[in-house]
Amino acid sequence: MAESVKSLEDILERNLSGEDLSEAKRILYGKQQPPLDIPQAAQQLAEQNGFEIAGYRIPCMLEEERAERRIRVGAIQNKIVLGTDQPVMEQIKALHERIKTIVEGAAMCNVNVLCLQEAWTMPFAFCTREKHPWTQFAESAEEGQTTKMLQKLAKQYNMVIVSPILERDEEHQDVLWNTAVVINNNGQVLGKSRKNHIPRVGDFNESTYYMEGNTGHTVFQTQFGKIAINICYGRHHPLNWLGYGINGAEIVFNPSATVGALSEPLWPVEARCAAIANGYFTVAINRVGTETFPNEFSSADGRPAHRDFGHFYGSSYVACPDGSRTPGLSRTTDGLLVTELDLNMCRQVKDTWGFQTTQRLPLYSDLLAEVTDPEEHFTRNILS
Q1: Is the overall model pTM greater than 0.90, yes or no?
Q2: Domain limits of the chain?
Q3: Which CATH fold topology does 33-353 show?
Q4: Sign of the torsion angle spanned by Cα atoms 12, 16, 22, 27
């Protein structure tokens, strides 16, 4: 049943109309985001290659002092192309070719900053706990074939590209990281951001492969604004989102791979709450499809062993500092979401709501310092 539902929007539009439909969308999404005109060539490319393309424009107040800072952000969600039993290099090549086509569509839509989904060059094999062949998908963040391929596209299309991969850290004993590589619009690697929080729930056996990242809350200054990457499970941790805001992010991408049975009710809420609390834009991206593996694996929860992780439900969307959000992409098909926004909205909303003025960071700094010293916390709060 889950895989047959196209999207929440589709259910609403098939069952509501007129004022009822508008009011339902207002309650769910805040103010309505006008559609963005998608060039006919991009629409044809999407139709010919079997991916959805959707676009929205986020209205923003004009200012007298500052010029508009209007940019276009792209998010890609996709299925794996070949079966998980196919040779590693063939799987990677097939995904490269698929993404090249969708990136071309993004370029036709004048996207300035584009982000792909978590570990996009491979099946999400971390459920299996098997090291081979899955670790063979890992590659260098700076010199790997995926980065080199995207460097050419970034330069060709004058586009910043965020590429989340399984990183092989060849300079530090070949250890693995879950990493997002940031490639500037001149084709140079601007840097990388590693996943801060690792899940330990259900089939998410990721700590078998890599541990928590060591890059902190890096914010990258690009020609098109200050961006950051909160990889997948980090969206469940409000302080993680806060860290990127404190460091000045204007857009935080959340490239993810998460399945319906576990997290779908949380998905529409978390990135949106982060945008509200921190006064920046968030871009939530989730892969689609069901990936089946050659060998059975278990979840250590009493369920029978199984070969698939569950349905990745897509539903990628953009949330705004004012609490509004775009509709989501499909739950079942590959897609490109293009959103035109004005980064000036970040400051405008901060001025309106005053969350940054009233957040009282020193108060919580003292609390966190105390809690991270167990002896002090016990003495002050338990014994007294």
Answers
A1: yes
A2: 33-353
A3: Nitrilase/N-carbamoyl-D-aminoacid amidohydrolase (3.60.110)
A4: negative
Please identify every residue annotated as catalytic. 118, 195, 232
The verdict on whether omega for the bond into residue 35 sits within 30 degrees of 0, i.e. cis, is no
Nearest partner of 231 among 287, 279, 290, judged by Cα: 287
Query: Residue 23: exposed, middle, or buried by beta-carbon count in 10 A (0-12, 13-18, 19+)?
Result: exposed
| CA of residue 56 relative to chain centroid, distance | 18
220: region left, alpha or beta (phi > 0 left; psi from -120 to 50 alpha): beta
pLDDT in tens, the chain (384 residues): 467 899 999 999 999 999 999 999 999 999 989 999 999 999 999 999 999 999 999 999 999 999 999 999 999 999 999 999 999 999 999 999 999 999 999 999 999 999 999 999 999 999 998 999 999 999 999 999 999 999 999 999 999 999 999 999 999 999 999 999 999 999 999 999 999 999 988 888 899 999 999 999 999 999 999 999 999 999 999 999 999 999 999 999 999 999 988 899 999 999 999 999 999 999 999 999 999 999 999 887 788 999 998 999 999 999 999 999 999 999 999 999 999 999 999 999 999 999 999 999 999 999 999 888 877 665 666 554
Beta-bridged to residue 176, according to DSSP, are 168
Pick the closest to residue 288 from 252, 327, 329, 254 (CA basis): 329
First-last CA distance in the chain: 54
Pairing of strands 288-297, 306-313: antiparallel
Percent of the chain as helix, strand, coil, to the nearest 5: 35, 25, 40
85 burial level (CB within 10 Å; 0-12, 13-18, 19+): exposed
Q: Give the pairing of strands 225-229 and 335-342.
A: unpaired
Which residues have a Cβ under 8 Å from the Cβ of 326 and sit 6 or more positions away? 29, 33, 54, 56, 58, 317, 318, 319, 337, 339
CB-CB neighbours of 307 under 10 Å: 14
Burial environment of residue 378 by CB neighbours within 10 A (0 to 12, 13 to 18, 19 or more): exposed
